[in-house]
From TrEMBL:
Keywords: GTP-binding, Ligase, Magnesium, Manganese, Metal-binding, Nucleotide-binding, Potassium. Coiled coil: none annotated. GO terms for molecular function: coenzyme F420-0:L-glutamate ligase activity; GTP binding; metal ion binding. This is Coenzyme F420-0:L-glutamate ligase. It comes from Agrococcus sediminis. The gene is cofE.
Length: 279
């Protein structure tokens, strides 16, 4: 994805306030990933023809990470797997096909069905999210940096819905060597951006999904042109993007919040009645 009106070697820092050119390349030839495969080595081999360089970012879909890690269960165990992967029910809704559960995953992500998915996997099986997507991203980044002698960042992506918008988009659930949040700065007029913090890693994951697609067999995308966001491997990973509970203004679904409020009111009323009786 490159601006056709600009040359590939254009330097955005030389009197031009526009952003840099951005190139996204589908990485092909990985084949089917199976449990126990050396995924970092497979990704490196597939990337070699594209000559990775300093500042490149590699986006890897979580499904191939889960497959390599053996995070596969029989489809019949789907509901059990959702329960085991969840630490808290956020909301649930009944529908003709069953019940949709929005839950807090053990990693802090809030998503439908704890990320348990039956797409792009063998019939009769389901995939769970990776054990630790930040650690998985770091393992891939370490291998790529060693193989190509270049500072390369890695994002592990997955598809999430949005609470206030229809449809889904890919976001970062793991990252290594990538600045996941843009530092707070100023707008074009020099005014401080007090609450604006672009989720760079999510934007990268969403852009990569446009190239990978859902059914094209492309689990890895090379992103070139965002080297300013590539960092050392000690940079915080995608876990940093999970909103802390104390800052979460929408911690429960509406029905669950109503029930909690009614229950709290009932307990308060009983306590007040007990205090009056004791008096």
């Amino acid at each position: 994805m490159t601006d056709p009106g600009r040359s590939a070697d254009h330097d955005p820092g030389q009197g031009d306030s526009r952003g840099p050119d951005l190139e996204l390349r589908a990485v092909r030839g990985m084949g089917e990933i199976r449990p126990g495969n050396d995924l970092p080595a497979i990704v490196a081999d597939a990337l070699a023809p594209l000559a990775p360089q300093d500042g490149d970012i590699v986006v890897v879909t979580s499904k191939v990470v889960s497959k390599a890690e053996g995070r596969i269960r029989p489809a019949a165990e789907r509901e059990q797997a959702i329960t085991e992967e969840s630490v808290r029910l956020v909301a649930s809704r009944a529908h003709p096909g069953g019940i949709t559960r929005i839950v807090e995953h053990r990693t802090g992500l809030v998503l439908a069905a704890a990320g348990v998915d039956a797409s792009n996997t063998d019939d009769g099986t389901i995939l769970l999210l990776p054990v630790d997507s930040d650690a998985s991203a770091r393992a891939i980044a370490e291998r790529l940096r060693s193989r190509f002698g270049a500072a390369i960042g890695v994002v592990v992506s997955d598809t999430l819905g949005r609470a206030w918008r229809v449809g889904q988009t890919d976001v970062a659930i793991g990252a290594a060597g990538v600045r996941v949040l843009e530092p707070v700065g100023t707008d074009a007029n020099g005014r401080p951006l007090l609450v604006t913090a672009p989720a760079i890693a999510d934007e990268i994951a969403g852009a990569a999904e446009l190239v990978a697609g859902k059914a094209d067999g492309v689990p890895v995308v090379l992103v070139r042109g965002l080297g300013r966001h590539v960092t050392d491997l000690d940079e915080p990973g995608a876990r940093r993007l999970v909103r802390p509970p104390g800052d979460d203004m929408f911690r429960l679904g509406s029905d669950e919040a109503y029930r909690a409020g009614r229950e709290a009111g009932r307990i308060d009323a009983l306590a007040e009645a007990g205090a009056q009786h004791a008096g």
